[in-house]
Amino acid sequence: MHTSRLRTSTVLLSVSALALTACGGVEGTGLGDSDSLSVVELTVREEGGQRGAEVLINGEIDAAENSSRVLSAGDGEEVDTSSIIEYNLAAVDPESGDIQTDSFGQPLPSMMWLPQLEASENAADDFVYDAFTMDGVTVGSELAIFMAASAETGNRDQLFAVRLEDQYPNHASGEVQEQSGDLPEITNEIGQAPELAEHDTEAEAPEELTSEVLIAGEGEQLADDDYLFVQYRGWRWEDGEEFDSTWSTGAEEDLAEDGQPGQPFPFSLTGGVIEGWTEGVKGHRVGDRVLLVIPADQAYGEAEGEDGMTADGRPGGTLIFVVDIIKAIDDATLREAQAPAQQPDMGDMSEEELEELLRQMQESQGGGEGGDAPAEDQVPADEETEEDAAENDGDQDEE
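RE: above sequence
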């Protein structure tokens, strides 16, 4: 089982390292030449159920370095550097004021795990991280971020108007619950990796899917078709050995210290992962930490060798999982985000126009051949390579 990565929409530019001057994150303050961005105004309009950004540039932006400015202070909590941030942005031509990209009208905001941004070796990412996490910057704040032209990379001046929409912990958050004693004991602390504390490997495993809430969250209750982001650890019942985890091990390639949450894993409750997950997680709440004991017939099947693995190399037998439910996206919002573009009305087209449209459609589909089936229908769990993941960016991994 491979851990999917949370997709981000960060500014990816190569610029030289900068010496930054930071002020508190109140309106009018920022990094670099923040005064030069005082001419920028961001207005988010909602009309007829549609949302969009309007950016006005009331003068010349004469900054010669990467700069940021808090256009308006939000009324939410201060940004937590370990959190996941939801944000929207408009990319603007700093000379003409034309909006080139606007995510404010999209059903789903962009999502960013701040430690991933901080760990980037790209200087522009470093700057954005510093702008977002400057002292006093809060949820709801609106910022202007100016990326100066670079002769080294050929990048032109770029301007981004950003609203920090929300933030949430990258782990379960709520009230720790006392265990019943019927399931394996878990060392359970909010914000820390769960540990399989005591487990009698000779004990008889439950014959049916069994679950227990370890941390009771206060978020919304999950719908049966939600799309989730989670942290997890998994162990085999028969020997208590861990076989997979999203939690950091403190290794050099990790973005966090040992025992800290890593990049969340996304999946849908409608399928794509083992049955024990979809059935065991349903009905819980965002913020919950759930202990699952999953029999082999709802996991990967029985072990067939001394190594405790199935014939195709997956962990066999009864499995123990601890799952932190971080974020849920309702199915209607997800379907709206993934909906195909509206097709043209062919009712009033002439015969020649119809023929031309059909020709263009055939060319766009490679001469009429069908496209590839979704990767989740082709790649079994645990068999997608890192190279496959890079080529199929955005596809779901199976649990």
